[in-house]
Amino acid sequence: MPLLVDTGILYALADRTDAWHQKSRRYLQSARERLLAPVTILPEVAYLLRERIGAQAEQAFVESIAAGEIAVEDLDHKDWQRVAALMAAYDAIGMVDASVIAIAERLKLDTLATTDRRHFTIVKPAHVERLTLVP
Q1: What is the pLDDT of residues 32-56, one digit of tens each?
Q2: Where are the beta strands (DSSP E) in the chain?
Q3: Single pTM value for the model
Q4: Exposure string (b/e) for 86-113, b if CB count within 10 Å is 16 or more?
Q5: Structural domain boundaries in the chain
Q6: Superfamily classification of domain 3-134
Q7: What is the DSSP letter of 41?
């Protein structure tokens, strides 16, 4: 089963000065699951990497996707419907976070690698009581 990842965890892996860097790195080194990134997080990750670290960090990120180190999950029509419903139900979450939850629901994934405790703790997914947030 893949490990669903959010923007923050991928950014933290690249930024050695990020408060979540060591914790994220240790967790993902011990995890054996393949990393699965919703397509909607990719522009956020790329933007943060380029703006905060530089073009080489963004390039390395793209190369890791091209090499298959990070799998990318597209959204289907029903996912987009669920994204809209989640955004309507929870004012605090935007499209990207809602898309992460929609993919978790469709794939029946109960664990999310994220640094975002604020948004992902308020949402009750349809398939589990709550997502297990790691690290």
Answers
A1: 899 999 999 999 999 999 999 999 9
A2: 3-5, 35-38, 70-73, 111-113, 132-134
A3: 0.94
A4: bbeebeebeebbbbbbbbbbbeebebbb
A5: 3-134
A6: 5'-nuclease (3.40.50.1010)
A7: G
